[in-house]
Design brief:
single chain, alpha+beta, three-stranded antiparallel β-sheet, two-stranded antiparallel ribbon, 5 helices
Length: about 200
């Protein structure tokens, strides 16, 4: 049975795309060649960007957030996006704090139920996401380090297929139908509450 792609394997795959030798460890970034350190940085950057899209594997529904003693709600630093399930409240994320746009205050008097998107560590991602992120990162990395259009085209083809695989996995795991889309539900006249996350 195949094992999940490790972060080290992802970095070595990126290095391989530009003809660099693999590294044995990425635990001490100060001891790494500049190319490997750059690859780690690009991999983290791309992982954050891809996860910010909000996928089944990194979204959490109906999470309760409670205000502190001063009424503020502080988010953990791994939350990429947050939205309340109560449509009468219009919240915005400002740094690590929540702001109520409907009352122009960052002070809340009660708990909030929210849907949120969380940034996961690479090793917590499903394999389809790991592969897609690795290929996007490989394309970006080679563009910054080498700038070969031929290499970019080759990687982009694999990246396109990996995106399709990720979308298939997303569809299979999220158990959605066309009726889970607000636009479709509105067009055919359904009046139901959906978690469209």
């Amino acid at each position: 049975m195949p094992t999940l792609t490790s972060k080290l394997e992802a970095v070595n795959s990126m290095l391989g795309h530009i003809g660099e030798s693999p590294v044995n460890s990425i635990s001490d970034t100060n001891a790494l060649p500049i190319s490997a350190a750059t690859a780690i940085s690009v991999l983290d950057e791309v992982s954050r960007s891809v996860q910010a899209e909000g996928w089944h594997f990194n979204t959490e529904l109906k999470v309760t957030l409670s205000p502190a003693g001063d009424g503020t709600i502080t988010l953990s630093d791994d939350i990429l996006e947050v939205d309340t399930t109560d449509t009468s409240i219009d919240i915005a994320q400002r740094g690590l704090s929540l702001f109520d746009r409907s009352t122009n205050t960052s002070v809340f008097s009660k708990d909030l139920e929210v849907n949120l998107t969380r940034l996961l560590d690479f090793t917590s991602l499903p394999e389809a996401a790991r592969r897609y992120i690795t290929l996007v990162a490989s394309r970006v990395f080679q563009g910054r380090m080498v700038g070969s259009r031929e290499l970019e085209a080759l990687i982009a083809r694999d990246e396109y297929n990996a995106r399709a695989d990720l979308m298939d996995a997303e569809g299979n795991n999220s158990d959605r139908t066309i009726f889970d889309s607000y636009a479709v539900a509105s067009r055919i006249g359904l009046n139901r509450n959906y978690d469209i996350s």
